[in-house]
Design goal:
single chain, 173 residues, mainly alpha, two-stranded antiparallel sheet, 5 helices, 2 strands, 3% strand, rod-shaped
Length: 173
């Protein structure tokens, strides 16, 4: 499971690139399958007897296997491409949320937990009679930022696990 900092530093474009490569491989499989079918078809005139019929049956099995592989590769590639793009957007959202919290004066801990920063504590101290209200407002903001960061962090962890599972499935293990 990636840490909060690893999620902030992540570059999920690798999933998108891998997805594109897997779909490209599916196209290559299709090209080879078509060449194979043409080669088998071209042999018909020079073969006699039942041997060619057996070869044609084998070609049907090979075609079905290639079609299944192409479909699996295309599905895995599309999933990785889509999830990679979604993860890139979520990483950016996570970064922006953290930066927004820090710009508002909060301190973001690596758990992720947002706490009041020094300038906010100074404002609470300077508020005299209004200190409890100022403190409550800042604490509400810290809770809101913490919940947003935790939600985004959890989503990235789930997406990372889904991508890893897709890679394992695509690799056949």
């Amino acid at each position: 499971m990636p840490t909060f900092q690893q999620c902030l530093d992540a570059d999920p474009s690798g999933f998108t690139q891998l997805g594109s490569k897997i779909m490209s491989t599916a196209g290559e499989i299709n090209s080879h399958a078509q060449q194979y079918a043409q080669t088998i078809s071209g042999l018909e005139s020079s073969w006699q007897g039942d041997d060619y019929k057996a070869l044609m049956r084998w070609q049907g099995i090979a075609t079905a296997f290639n079609t299944m592989n192409q479909a699996e590769f295309n599905v895995a590639g599309a999933m990785l491409t889509s999830m990679g793009a979604t993860m890139m957007a979520n990483v950016q959202t996570l970064k922006l949320t953290k930066e927004s919290a820090e710009a508002a004066g909060y301190k973001v801990l690596p758990t992720p937990l947002v706490i009041l920063g020094p300038s906010q504590w100074q404002q609470v101290s300077a508020a005299n009679v209004g200190a409890p209200a100022v403190l409550a407002a800042y604490q509400a903001g810290a809770i809101a930022f913490t919940m947003a960061l935790m939600t985004q962090y959890g989503a990235l962890i789930a997406q990372d696990a889904a991508c890893a599972a897709t890679v394992r499935i695509a690799a056949g293990s």
